[in-house]
Amino acid sequence: MLLTVTTTHRPATDLGYLLVKHPDRTHAFDVPTGTAHVLYPEATEDRCTVALLLDVDPQRLGGGRKQQASPDSFTLGQFVNDRPYAASSLLASALAKVFRSALRGESKDRPSLAATPIPLEIHVPVLRCKGDPVALFEPLGWTVTARAIPLDDVPEGHPLAGDSAYVDLNLTGTLRLADALNQLYVLLPVLDDAKHYWVAPDEIDKLLRSGEGWLAAHPLKELIARRYLAHRRAFALTALERLSPDLPPVVMKPRDPSLADLRRDAVLAALASSGASRVLDLGCGGGALLAGLIKDMRYTEIVGTDVSSKALDLAHKRLHLDNVPSRQAGRVTLWQSALTYRDDRLKGFDAAVLMEVIEHLDPARLPALEASVFGHARPTTVVVTTPNAEYNVLYEGLSGMRHSDHRFEWGRSSFAAWTDRICTTYGYNAALSFVGNVDKSVGGSTQMAIFTLPRKDES
């Protein structure tokens, strides 16, 4: 991943004094996730550019400090991801280590220049962007250009056609170098909306230190605090109260149910209506649905399956399966299983759930999943949820699909056609509905299908 900082302040090579990195040399620094390189592609009296290049080592990325657990983690996740290429908290951490004195606004050789706003241009060629960079950087005095990066070699009309979730970001403005670097340190992970390490209380101090002089007046300070602190509500409240100690305590509005909450509740309601007692959660991930199932004693046997052993480990910890009461021992089981292969252990269950699973498969692999679930395992009820691609236009700042691992997202007609094909091929009936907000023009955010086998007296 790459970040460049350019100045036209004369003499421009004084940038090297501010960063304490000589323009005529290359510099390398060991960081917890790889090696950070500092070099100067150009260094003249009129224009000087410094580049921070972070070379990520996947094996080191997978170790070290405890990382933020992600429900979509998978076994090869430390190798198969965007981290070596897209700016994120990894780059922000490297920036903090490599340019430590510059972030503090200190310069032994050019102290007056360190305190002076100078013309700056910052370029981040690839940044995963979950939000509006203009709204984040423009209030700070930057002129912002964010060009969406299109997906390569995707024919028009293909489900994957369009822009990716990444932007090419350019910022121009006249600011102190220290202010510019501190803003990047905070806002890169905010735009990515992810941290590569566990967020502890000391992150509040880091946010307030880096946000000194600009964060308190930012119109999106609540969003910045919430995302920087990995959505830890208590941490965000503490940070906001410390930012403005003279104001009344910050009272955040009660959180409306998220789409994930609504989706889980809709699936649980569908299972309850089905009368099932033995249930499969296929592609269970970190166990969000299993946590709801285990609270309902109508379910006498609950099985969660996933291809990822790491996801199953997360589910195991989330459900506290090592400490279940003796009367519940054996009620919940976790199996590693690939849904594109037939597994005899999955046969004979009353109901199965595929909650936000099918869109993570390549379309060519869907028939194998269909044969495995609807043909071989053949539960009486199958509940499927998947995003409605048509609804994406209502998500501000979203370009491309909702998740970087989605292989496709269907609109309403495509999902309906798929459910019809399942019913025709495997003898199920299906009822379609939406979960979440419903728009008259594009439908609901999440599509849900409840497949049921007809009773013998109906066949």
Automatic annotation (TrEMBL):
GO molecular function: metal ion binding; RNA binding; small RNA 2'-O-methyltransferase activity
Family to which this protein belongs: Belongs to the methyltransferase superfamily. HEN1 family.
Pfam families hit by this protein: Hen1_L, Methyltransf_12
GO biological process: regulatory ncRNA-mediated gene silencing; RNA methylation
Keyword S-adenosyl-L-methionine set for record: yes
Statement: the UniProt record of this protein carries the keyword Metal-binding: yes
The name this protein goes by in its record: Small RNA 2'-O-methyltransferase
Listed SUPFAM superfamilies: S-adenosyl-L-methionine-dependent methyltransferases
Catalysis: reaction(s): small RNA 3'-end nucleotide + S-adenosyl-L-methionine = small RNA 3'-end 2'-O-methylnucleotide + S-adenosyl-L-homocysteine + H(+)
EC number: 2.1.1.386
Hen1 N-terminal domain location: 1-243
Domain of life: Bacteria
Cofactor: Mg(2+)
InterPro entries xrefs: 3'-RNA_MeTfrase_Hen1_bac, Hen1, Hen1_N, Hen1_N_sf, Methyltransf_12, SAM-dependent_MTases_sf
UniProt keyword terms in alphabetical order: Magnesium, Metal-binding, Methyltransferase, RNA-binding, RNA-mediated gene silencing, S-adenosyl-L-methionine, Transferase
Annotated ranges, domain Methyltransferase type: 280-370
